Amino acid sequence: MAPLAPRSGDAVFASVERVNAELFTLTYGAIVRQLLTDLEEVDEVNKQLDQMGYNIGIRLIDEFLAKSNVSRCVDFKETAEVIAKVGLKMFLGVTASVSNWDADGLSCSLILEDNPLVDFVELPDACQGLYYCNVLAGVIRGALEMVSMKTEVNWVRDMLRGDDAYEIRIKLLKQVPEEYPYKDDE
Amino acid sequence: MQFFGASAESNPSPLAPAGTGTGLLGNNTFMIYFFNRNGECLLYREWHRPLKTLESHQDHKLMFGLLFSLKSFTTKLDPISAEKGSLGVPLLPGQGCSFHCFCTNTYKLSFMESPSGIKIILVTHPKCGDLRESLRYIYNIYVDYVMKNPLYAPGTAIKCELFNTKLDQYIRTIV
To answer: ipTM of this predicted complex?
Structure first.
């Protein structure tokens, strides 16, 4: 029996269980609010959101691989496309577009038109340095690390800060192949 | 508080594919191993293993080493694909050609590796059919009951009772 073909983002999105969008948005908002109360420093909150995203990403990757049946991507361009069209669709219900590739193909931007995390959100003046959706950056970094890619993920444009779209910049630092973990003399 | 609601029964792929069983219902599968990308054995379960030759740590090392080498060999001997790494150079999981089972006169070993490095090895009776679908189903069970379990730390041994129960239930249906 031949292996299953990878499924498109829409097909996977239709088959996974979904949760009410408002519940999701408001729960995330409550988390950010609580972090701001506990940590007070906006930079600390950004770091914490990234760490939380990282912890989510390392688990999320297996679910993504199991449900969508994608095989190993040939290069980083394909990886970015898969994240934008299948991954984000499956977990957030929105797709992104990939653009702004740099010359060596190791760095790109994902542009989201629509972001369910930020419905109903306005940043007050006191929190102007906050990357509200930083958890997404952490998720992408964590997930890619589990498939042997060390990356750096940052927010470039954020509509909550007055820009016109949401743009995440992903940069591939290196590919880490697996090593034989046992030494010969053990 | 229930983490795994009874209504959240995921049915990710069709039920166990029909194969040519031996008639011994529930006794076709001998052992299962789960390894992660660092060679740590996350789970070892056996249902029918009359002969044990090595103690468990060495057994796991042997199994992991065998698969690591087999992957390397099969990629090197591949007559079709153009790009091959040198023998012994580590490959990214999913790269190279992916071998999926070998069969002897007494057992059949089926193997699946995900791009995230999770390796699932199933040792069954040689008459079992192609188990790739079953391995994918087991991977889905792993995702639902282990990865989504907040009390499980990734990279450690799997000690989730619910996962063990589900796995046993599914294994019994493999023919």
So the answer is: 0.86
